[in-house]
Amino acid sequence: MFEYIVKRLLFAVPILIGVNVITFSLFFMVNTPDDMARAQLGAKQTTPEMIQSWKVENGYDKPLFFNGDASGLDKIQHTLFVQESLKLFAFDFGQSDSGRQISADIQERMGPSLAIALPTFIIGLVTNIALALLIVLFRGSRLDTITMMVAVAIMSVSGLFYIIAGQVLFSKTWHWVPISGYAEGWEGIKFLILPVLIGVFAGIGAGMRWYRSIFLEEMSKDYVRTAKAKGLTDIKVLFGHVLHNGMLPILTGVVVVIPTLFMGSLIMESFFGIPGLGSYTIDAINAQDFGIVKAMVFLGSVLYIIGLILTDISYTLFDPRVKLS
Prior knowledge:
By secondary structure, this protein is mainly α. About 75% of the residues lie in helices and about 0% in strands.
């Protein structure tokens, strides 16, 4: 187990380097250090001296990937990419271009992101699996057909529609919950009800179809026919055998998602004014704050890799036949 984890972590290094190369390339194809300086200085008239001073202060005066003025290894080392990437691999996110400590911001905003993501994930998972089992129990019936039509309809509508419709209906029309905002502690529950419900509802269509296909595949296997031949009812077969044996493909989607919950939801947090990591990333992109952008992309990649490793490890817990190598 330990050797497997070390091997996977070593394999992750070139992946993270590649992610950084793409992030740096794409960002600086769209923005130049001069544009970033003007955005951060915020002055109506910025002089070339002010721009150059800001670039030197924040390290953007160096070449991106190759320093032609240096010699030897310094041609690579004295570049923006190497100097900033080395900090990331040490989990030193440094300061944002606006001067704030990124690590402190991440710790502060992680709570609001989890406050939305965890309830949405847990409630959505339980709801989707329960509905999928119910549909499989009545497979081939009119209920199955109607439910699948509704699921496809839900999937076909943009998540933005559910957000806007929910705000108009539950907040502006019925005044049941606040339209946006956030508060700590129990006071914050009223701000989380609507985004959590919308998140769960928007994911029902895809989740229900996914779990239904898993359970239907299991229902066609020999052990199910054997269990029925022994006199077990469909309910006992579903909950006693099919659900357990369907856990491996379910874990593929579930465990990978868990680490990414820390990153928050970009759209949901922005529309509901939740000060989480999702809105933090959107604000950084709008402000051309590369310090935050590169940190969030790197952190997201690390969490995704951790999720893949946890998925492989969890396989061995549900199926001893699976061996890690």
